[in-house]
Amino acid sequence: MKKLIAALVLSLQALAIGFVVPAQAQQNTQETVWIQVAARPSLASASAEARAIAARLPDVAGFSLGGGWYGVLIGPYTREDANRVLQVYRSEGQIPRDSFIAFPANLRTQFYPLGEDAAQTNAVPADPAPQTAETAATAPTSPEADQAPETAPLVIADPAPTLPDETPAQARRSESLLSRDERKDLQTALKAAGFYTSAIDGAFGRGTRSSMADWQVSNGYEATGVLTTAQRQALMDEYNAPLISVGMRRITDEQAGISLEIPAAEVAFARYEPPFAHYDSSGDLGLRVLLISQRGDKRTLYGLYDIMQTLEIVPLEGPRSRSGDSFTLEGRNSRFTSFTQASLKNGEIKGFTLIWPANDEARRSRVLAAMQDSFERRDGVLDDAAGADIQQDIDLLSGLEIRKPKMSRSGFFVSSDGAVVTTSDVVQGCTRVTLDHGYTAEVLARDSKNGLAILRPAQALAPMAVAELSGHSPRLQSDIAVSGFSYEGVLGAPSLTWGKLADVKSLDGNPDVARLELTAQSGDAGGPVVDASGAVLGMLLPQAADDRQLPDGVSFAVNAAAIRSALDNAGLSVQTQPAGADLTNQALTRRATGMTVLVSCWD
Question: What residues have CB less than 8 Å from 365, skipping those under 6 apart?
Fold first, then answer.
């Protein structure tokens, strides 16, 4: 750790990162992690790699990873510092671009360095015997075996003996036996390691040979431009280290009718809740996988596309595409990234969702590509009745949490294309504002003095009714009603709350605010206050968040004149209703609720 501080301080200052790696004593009270930079299938090759990296970087250590694999790592650091060190070393080309954060619980016996300088970790003290291919053949492959899919870590056969060195002539002969796909794989691995920039075509021309020579020099080999069998294996092992680290392994879920590779060391089957088979996190990374399986047609597929976007596991920011008989969804936030794909074929909708923690993009992209490439449809789909005994919850959909807004209030339409008046507090600090959850709106104007805001939808809407502001002075003690989503949309539709007009001014004498005898809920704020003729007298204000304790049934509303003034200033014309005949209760309810809309603020 002391060497690391000295080695990185100039580089970190140059990059204006400005962090200090904690002292060893501090590590005892903070979670520590490592950065894995290489994985090798033999102790000899891993030791050589560790020595080569230690010649140019400090704080290098080597640990058994299990299954006959050995990792070369640097650290340990706190998680925050590890992310920054990873950024610095990647940008300088000191470590491969697919290096990643590794956790002490996944490390076993330390083999480098040995002695007093050996790092202290929470590594498992002994390396269990690796499973063999024969053992793997007997493992269950579907949820019907022991009621859950097999989710043991990646099964790797006993490693082959260290491959002997080859002369350049022998290397060329062994290289000539490679298939075109194997040649393309080598070019892909060289490109991922930063040595190759040309096309992945399987043709070993001057560019490929030069990149091979550069890779050989970087890894301490003679620069011949032709990789030996052992060097090809080392290159591919390094490239596949992200997949090895999460135990990528093919599983077949017979009930879902899906077979694919998943990060089996990090997720395990949990339950069925159609249309999903849940594979929840079982490791330190916090990964999750969902298999999607249901009967349906194009309408069902498009409905699933819409529903998925209401879930917490699909953040709002990210690309999404729907065309023909398939869709993809990607969502990102500061905590995680999720990717969903689904397609319709022969009346069956199948796909998957991968949920991955943020700041681990290189490894996520490799795992996602492997899942996509390995995805296979099998016979059958999930039974709609599967998981019927799971406890139901209004905030959950098939076991997944529905995304909820930070706040919801009421509003009302004031134009035929969907402009809305609402309370100003509902649009403060929002990354996104919606009308009825499905329509994005922008804030056109705010009137902070009177506590109202004017919204314009991103697309023109066709309201069932548009507010007509009252053109006459209301009578004291006349009957009034407020239309609103009293419980912030839980009931799905607005309702009316009845009361009386107590005063045409507020308690402190403000003539723009009327006092009402009306018991309202928080979700009613922003809703229209109407008289018996359906004319809008004002907009209900939220309860003041101050030290006053008013009697029950005291509410306030900004009046029609103030609303009209704010709309005029925003360049919007508004309809005015002269004194008219009283409506029946049914007609009044239909008119008031038809102009009322749910306004939601989202993080």
Answer: none
User: pLDDT tens for residues 120-155?
Assistant: 444 444 333 333 333 333 333 443 333 434 333 333
- Write out the DSSP string of 194-227: TS--S--SS---HHHHHHHHHHHHHTT----SS-
Q: Name 14's Cβ contacts closer than 8 Å, sequence gap at least 6.
A: none
pLDDT of 507 over the 60 cut: yes
Q: What three-state secondary structure class fits 7? A: helix
Phi, psi angle pair for 234, to nearest 5°: -65, -40
Nearest to 444 by CA among 483, 418, 466: 418
For 304, residues 6+ apart whose C-beta sits below 8 A from its C-beta are: 275, 292, 294, 296, 327, 342, 349
Section 566-577 average pLDDT? 89
3-class SS letters over 218-259: HCCCCCCCCCCHHHHHHHHHHHCHHHHHCCEEEEEECCCCEE
* 3-class secondary-structure state, position 330: strand
Q: How far is CA 589 from CA 102, 436, 550, 592, in A?
A: 61, 19, 29, 5
- In which element (H, E) is residue 53 found? helix 43-54
Contact in structure between 312 and 402 (CB atoms under 8 Å) = yes
Cβ–Cβ under 8 Å, residues 541 and 528: no
| Secondary-structure percent of the chain, ordered helix, strand, coil, rounded to 5 | 25, 30, 45
* Selection from 34, 53, 38, 251 nearest residue 155 by Cα: 251
Please check whether residue 453 is in contact with residue 481, taking contact to mean a CB–CB distance below 8 angstroms: no
d(CA 531, CA 536): 7
Given the structure tokens 């009621």, which residue do they identify?
Answer: 147
What are the pLDDT digits (tens) for 409-457?
Answer: 999 999 999 999 999 999 988 888 999 877 889 999 999 889 999 999 9
d(CA 329, CA 338): 8
